[in-house]
Amino acid sequence: MPWLLVLHIAALLVWCGALLYLPALIAAGRTGAAGEPFAPAAEALPRAFFTRLATPAALLTIASGTLLFLGRGVHGVWLMLKLSAVTLMVVCHVLLGVLILRLEDDPRRPLAGRCAALGLLAALAIGAVLWLVLARPFRGAG
């Protein structure tokens, strides 16, 4: 089971990084640094990042976490709190996908405020998961 825990932590790190980076990528997806539109290939970057990196990392995190939960038989209030925080991360993930669709629909639509709010919400959810994991006493595999 140690390999499963390593896989879970690695996938979680990638997913958390993606949740924190995607709002900035979406907000910057409207224009380049000089205020000129991005090249067509760069306009597809938020979607590619979301579908090829963030979503697989999220699915791998959730699947490996579920297997860890089933294998270790963890239950109780702690697990419910952690799953609530993870659910908030999933909601942020879905809402980032919605923002990507809105960006593709109308590249001139102002999304910076929504991206900032989602970035903050994602950071709070990630912080909650981290706090819950670190606050829980470690129990060995035995």
Automatic annotation (TrEMBL):
Predominant cellular place of this UniProt entry's protein: membrane
Required cofactor names: heme b
Keyword terms of this UniProt record: Cell membrane, Heme, Iron, Membrane, Metal-binding, Oxidoreductase, Transmembrane, Transmembrane helix
Bilayer topology term: Multi-pass membrane protein
Transmembrane regions: 49-70, 77-99, 111-134
Pfam (any one): UPF0093
EC number: 1.3.99.-
Location in the cell: Cell membrane
UniProt catalytic activity: protoporphyrinogen IX + 3 A = protoporphyrin IX + 3 AH2
PANTHER family per UniProt: PROTOPORPHYRINOGEN IX OXIDASE, UPF0093 MEMBRANE PROTEIN SLR1790
Family listed: Belongs to the HemJ family.
Stated role: Catalyzes the oxidation of protoporphyrinogen IX to protoporphyrin IX.
Name of this protein: Protoporphyrinogen IX oxidase
Native species: Azotobacter bryophylli
Taxonomic classification: Bacteria, Pseudomonadati, Pseudomonadota, Gammaproteobacteria, Pseudomonadales
